Amino acid sequence: MAYETPQTTLKKPFQWCIILGGGMMRSGEGYRTGETADRFVQPLLLYKKGMVKKLLITGGNVNIKGLKIDDTQESKKVKEVLIAMGVAEKDIYLEENARNTHENATYTKKMLAPYLAEEMVLVTSAMHMPRARACYIKEGFRVVVYPADIKKKDTPSGILDLVIPQERNLSKFAELIREMAGFVIYKVVGFA
Length: 192
Description:
The chain is α/β, with parallel strands linked by helices and 192 residues long. The chain has six helices and seven strands.
C-alpha cells in the first residue's frame, strides 16, 4: 500500500530499539501471537545481527474502565518470548502505561531522556509508522524508522487480482482510513 513506510536497511548499529505494542500477542493461555507479531520479530532479528543492543517495548495498557477490557499483558508476554528466543533479559525494557501512540512517545521519553541525543530505531507497523514517527520527533527523538508488518504485496498483481474482490482489501482500506484520520487528529491536537 502506498501509505505504508517502505522497508529500510540499517547501515550501522544502534543502542536502542523502540517497539510499539498493539496486536503483537493475543489473550489466553500460553503465547499466541497476534496480527502484528512482526513488530517484535524484526527487532529480534536486528538484535541477533548485533544491529541493536537494547529493546524497549512500549504500550500495553489499553483498558478503559467499563468500555474496553484487555488482559493480554502484551509487553510482558513479548518479553518472555524474546527471552526464550535468546535475547538477554538485561537488554529488554518495558513501558507498560501507554494507551496510544502519543503516550508511547511521551512515556518512552521519560525512560530514555538521557539518550535523546542518540539516534534510535523505531519499530511499528508500516501503516502506523507515519503517525508514530511524527509523535516521536515531536517529543525530541532522533529516530531511524524500521517498519514491520508490511501489507504491500511483493508480487505483481495478475488479472484475477483485479477482477475478483478480496475481503482483506476492505480491511486494508479501513486500516488506511484509520491511520490517515489518526494522523490528522494528532496534528490538529499537537501530538505530532
